[in-house]
Specification:
The protein is mostly helical. Helix content is 54%, strand content 0%. Helix 2 packs antiparallel against helix 3, helix 2 runs antiparallel to helix 10 and helix 4 packs antiparallel against helix 8.
């Protein structure tokens, strides 16, 4: 919900309306980074990683089943292409999501969960308890609104009545947000204050949780994005010189958990969803399809030879091409 769709700032139950204006604007931007209709939106990146992770494992499981039946007939070069492509895609995707934004290069601004954490921490003064609870017009003190609602609807009809989830009558939302902010600020209910802020240990904890993905950036930099010299790889621990499916899944899990916590608990924006989107089509369709018909192999051999011959000509007349 953007600031324009919310109630007017001056109607919100806060003491510092200017600060609320800033918070609402920032909150809208942060939510946009997560959910915008763009392939680089943070959630779009995560959903793609999680989908590809499960799909590749499903294909791999199919290969295992075929192997047990003595039917493991996939071409070895095709398998290599699938595996290296998956590793390159997944490590690059994980690296993008944990990348730190280069503030000194605004023209290289990125969308990553690490950038979002840094932004939240830098703007922690905006995320006060009263802004967190009352940004959409919900009351800071839920008791009066709750009492009025109970008088109007009757205590015995609580389950059958709908409680407003925003505006002055949203007393239940106010209760829940206060409880969530108690956790974020590390405060007891008796210690609550309108100016409470998120304890910075929360951001340290989020960065720590993403820390398990740190070596993935190193692996991608050294082996995929760049062809690093052996001298530049000497200090890399042996455990970080290879990638497994479990390592990839562990990183995606950490990124998903951190992003979900920020979206649902810090921004109070949306509930936690499944990391793998529900298929809107038969996502396993044609997996039982034979790659080639038996009489196609000779044709493919001819095609292969022609393509190799074309590339063989790359070496011809090199002196002419580069003669000054």
């Amino acid at each position: 919900m953007t600031p324009k769709e919310l109630c007017k700032t001056k109607e919100c139950d806060v003491h510092n309306h200017d600060l609320l204006d800033e918070y609402r604007e920032k909150r809208s931007t942060w939510i946009d980074w997560l959910h915008m209709d763009d392939p680089h939106a943070i959630w779009s990146q995560i959903y793609n990683l999680a989908w590809d992770d499960v799909f590749f494992r499903t294909i791999n499981h199919g290969r295992l089943l075929n192997s047990r039946l003595g039917q493991n007939k996939l071409n070895s070069s095709l398998i290599r292409l699938l595996e290296t492509g998956h590793i390159a895609s997944q490590t690059s995707g994980i690296r993008r999501l944990v990348e730190v934004n280069k503030r000194y290069k605004p023209d290289q601004s990125i969308l990553s969960i690490r950038r979002l954490i840094d932004e939240l921490e830098e703007n922690v003064d905006l995320i006060t308890r009263e802004n967190y609870v009352c940004y959409d017009g919900s009351p800071y003190n839920p008791t009066p609104s709750e009492d009025s609602w109970l008088i109007e609807n009757g205590e015995n009809n609580f389950i059958s009545r709908i409680v407003p989830n925003e505006g002055p009558g949203a007393w239940l939302s106010s209760y829940h947000r206060h409880e969530a902010f108690d956790m974020l600020s590390i405060k007891e209910p008796s210690e609550r204050s309108r100016t409470d802020k998120i304890n910075t240990k929360i951001f340290s904890k989020l960065k720590e949780h993403l820390g398990r993905c740190g070596y993935m950036k190193t692996f991608n930099d050294k082996f995929i994005a760049h062809a690093s010299h052996p001298e530049n790889r000497k200090e890399i621990p042996p455990s970080q010189l290879s990638i497994t499916l479990d390592k990839l899944t562990s990183c995606i899990e950490a990124i998903f958990q951190v992003t979900s916590f920020i979206d649902a608990c810090i921004l109070w924006n949306s509930s936690v969803s499944n990391p793998v989107p529900s298929p809107q089509y038969d996502h396993l369709e044609n997996l039982d399809w034979q790659l080639l018909l038996e009489n196609s192999k000779d044709n493919l051999a001819t095609f292969w030879n022609k393509e190799v011959e074309k590339r063989g000509k790359w070496k011809e007349k090199l002196e002419e091409k580069f003669k000054l």
